Amino acid sequence: MIIGWAYFMAGVMTVDALLLGLLLLNVKWPKHWKRNG
After folding, report:
1. pLDDT, tens digit, 9 for 90 and up, residues 1-37
2. What distance in Å separates the CA atoms of residue 16 and residue 13, rounded to the nearest whole number?
3. What phi, psi does 14 have (nearest 5°)?
């Protein structure tokens, strides 16, 4: 149970990190994409 919970928490933290990274990319990069587009 404890090991499963640890895996679950690790997965949630990984997903949160990925979502935060995507949000930061969406905030920082649109201008560059529009310039190149």
Report:
1. 789 999 999 999 999 999 999 998 888 776 666 666 5
2. 5
3. -65, -45
